[in-house]
Design a protein that fits this description.
Shape: globular
Largest sheet: 6 strands, parallel
Helix content: 25-40%
CATH topology: Rossmann fold
Distance between the termini: 49 Å
CATH architecture: 3-Layer(aba) Sandwich
Radius of gyration: 16 Å
Order of helices and strands: EHEHEHEEEHEHEHEE
Number of helices: 6
Strand order of the largest sheet: 4-3-1-7-8-9
Structural class: alpha/beta
CATH superfamily: 5'-nuclease
CATH class: Alpha Beta
Length: 186
């Protein structure tokens, strides 16, 4: 016997914080010669459930997206991801910083939850900033699953998530060049 009644949680939406996962992959792999297959990752995370939407959130410099980023966004769109690009990268003394991406992901996830577009949200990021929206989505009667690399997984995300996955254990990376974002070989 369980505390909660069994629900047919089948409709899944995936929300990927691209730079969070990409930068984590670089730290995990220790090299820039990395192939990251988001198509395969999404398939593994969703499993036999029904995928109703998959979003990738990213940022670029205002008015000047580099060719590599544009090609990546186009490829992701071509294979079915909805790419949300915020022109919000800001130059800082110690490099560049993206803005608005976490808030954009949180707003999209909450809106779809309140419109009853999914039963389960899968957040691909270990960023603690998502904890409040995860709690609101759960309060709306939805489940939240989180996937991130162990070294960047917030303990608060683990405690809040209904299910969490460690990306270190999911085969979606390979060591070669250039970066692959899914679907087919380069």
């Amino acid at each position: 016997m369980t505390l909660f009644s069994e629900q047919p949680y089948k409709r899944v939406m995936v929300f990927i914080d691209f730079r969070n996962i990409y930068n984590s992959c670089l730290n995990f792999a220790g090299t820039e010669k990395l192939r990251m297959d988001l198509f395969r990752l999404t398939q593994i995370l969703v499993g036999s459930r029904d995928l109703v939407g998959a979003y990738v959130f990213d940022a670029s410099m205002k008015g000047s997206m580099d060719l590599e980023t544009k090609k990546m966004h186009d490829k992701l769109s071509d294979i079915g991801f909805r790419v949300v690009n915020r022109e919000s990268i800001v130059k800082r003394d110690n490099g560049y910083e993206q803005k608005e991406v976490d808030v954009s992901l949180a707003c999209e996830m909450l809106e779809h939850a309140l419109l009853n577009h999914f039963d389960i949200a899968i957040v691909v990021s270990g960023d603690r900033d998502f904890v409040p929206v995860m709690q609101k989505v759960q309060a709306a009667g939805k489940r939240v699953e989180v996937a991130a690399f162990e070294n960047v997984y917030s303990d608060e995300c683990k405690r809040t998530a209904d299910v969490y996955y460690t990306l270190n254990d999911i085969p979606f990376l390979s060591m070669s060049s250039p970066i692959s974002l899914g679907g087919e070989q380069e």
